[in-house]
C-alpha cells in the first residue's frame, strides 16, 4: 500500500533521480514528482502541496542551497521538510545547509536503507 506523501525529487542528474525514485517506490512512496533544477522545483512547490523536498546540492542553474534559501524565505511553503543530498565529505556544505534551515543532510553514495531511514526521520521530525 502506498504512503499518502507527495515527494519532490530535485537533481540535474536523471540517473540519480531514477535511483532515488526506485528507493522511494520500494519504500512505499508512489506520489513522486521530479525536477532538474531549483527554479523548476520552486514553481512546482508553489503550485501544489509537497510533503517532502529531496534536493541535490550541486546543480546547474539554481543550486540546491539557493533553492533551500528560497523555500525557507517563502511564508507559504517555508516549513516544508527538506532533505539535502550531496557528495560525501563536504563538511562546509553541511554546516551551510543547516544554517539555512535544512531538515537533514545525506551524503552520496548511500544505500536504499540509509536513504529511506533519512526520509522517515525527516518526515517524522517535529
Description:
The chain is α/β, with parallel strands linked by helices and 126 residues long. The chain has a single domain, classed as Response regulator (Rossmann fold, 3-Layer(aba) Sandwich), CATH 3.40.50.2300. Helix content is 44%, strand content 25%. It has a 5-stranded parallel sheet, sandwiched between helices. Helix 4 links the parallel strand 4 and strand 5. The longest helix is centred in the first third of the chain and has 13 residues, at 14-26.
Instruction: Find the structural class using helix and strand composition.
Output: alpha/beta
* Number of domain units: 1
The major beta sheet can be summarized as: 5 strands, parallel
Strand content: 15-25%
Mean residue pLDDT: 91
Globally, the shape reads globular
Q: Any idea of the CATH topology?
A: Rossmann fold
Helix content: 40-55%
Q: How many beta strands in the DSSP annotation?
A: 5
Q: Which CATH first-tier class would you pick? A: Alpha Beta
What is the count of helical runs? 5
Give the SSE order as H and E letters. Answer: EHEHEHEHEH
Which stretches of 5+ consecutive residues score pLDDT under 50? none
The CATH superfamily bears the name Response regulator
> Based on the structure given, which CATH architecture is correct?
3-Layer(aba) Sandwich
* Rg (CA only): 13 Å
Strand order of the largest sheet: 2-1-3-4-5
Amino- and carboxy-terminal Cα gap: 25 Å
List keywords for this structure.
Rossmann fold, 5 helices, alpha/beta, 126 residues, five-stranded parallel sheet
